[in-house]
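Give me structure tokens for this 428-residue protein.
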Amino acid sequence: MRSFTTSEQWLDRAERTIPLGTQTFSKSRTQFPRGISPYFITRGEGARVWDADGNEYVDFINSQCSVTLGYNDPDVTAAVKAQLEDGVIFSLPHPIEMEVAERIVEMVPCAEKVRFGKNGSDATAGAIRIARAFTGRDRVAVCGYHGWQDWYIGSTARNRGVPQATRELTSTFAFNDPDSLKAVLDAHPGEFAAVIMEPMNVTTPTPEFLGAVKELAHAHGALLVFDETITGFRFANGGAQEMFGVIPDLATFGKGLANGYPVSAVTGRADVMKLMEEVFFSFTFGGETLSLAAAKATLDKLRGGPVLANMRRTGEGAMAGIEALITQHDLAHMLSVSGDATWSFLNFKDTANYTLWELKTLYMQEIFERGVLAYGTQNISAAHGPGEIAALLSAYDAAFAALAEADSNRTLAQMLRCKPLEPLFRVR
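Here you go.
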């Protein structure tokens, strides 16, 4: 049985100075049950990571989808080391800013101009600000997860600290349901600046959905913004907009843009993006060169070979294997798999005996013990190959067997070595 003693000691220490012990909610103990989970990773290489206790894992979280090529990719690391010799940040722009912007314009269908931030939340907030400036309107319709800033998070259950007046400006609509968007827009005619959405997450869009959203947005005088923080440079070199053939007015990117280095981008129509000359969207570290060097190397690698096509084939094998295991263990009443091959989801449902949270906790316990790091998604990187997929499916086989036994015999409480996860704010 794996030991997590050092991880737990470090968590106790960290929480004396850091709320929840980490900077990212999805990396915290709210997502990882104490007693069965690692809390600190000390090293990564390719598709594998090592925790504070020396346990090795095949990683299918991949830093919340930000690692696309694999940990410590040699081309990215070499580019960053070379740039480090020249400097990290300067008193004037460095040429690498325009070099990366030019690559994004060449690759992304909607991209005519580009501005950089550091996190996906920077980019989505910037897109909404210029959409409001361009239209002279305040309201926003949202579908998906768009970051921590007030304009979006106020529409969720995690809205503490967000003024009510701000919350009231954001309305949600349902994925694959254009009528729900129409109802939102019709309720406040002439008041919406933007419709922002993840073009895909858990569910594949129906053939007509994204086009219908664009038509509705434009019919109401609003801009369409695709939040491609995850789908960008993962689904296709030009993102989900290239994959589905629907071009938004603006799009935001992050995560896979630089294989884990902190950089994001707002891009889109030149006439809208020109407002970035007046709208204040400015960061001391917006032109930080190490992240841009990583982005340049990442984009060049994506353009130079079938990286994403190979990732897709790998992910298709994982999804097919998971579906076969669900059938083999007769678990269709509690499990399903969905999403894109490069970013797929293992979906849990309540059974007559247990909540999805209890079931998910047992699943996590079993896969962590077998050296797979995941929490219900399969985030594929280019470093994953047949061996890593075999490890995933072997761990899932054992976990699914445990789930079947626990549910049929009502023995989950006896099988768990920790307290179950509790219902939490869900971003999708």
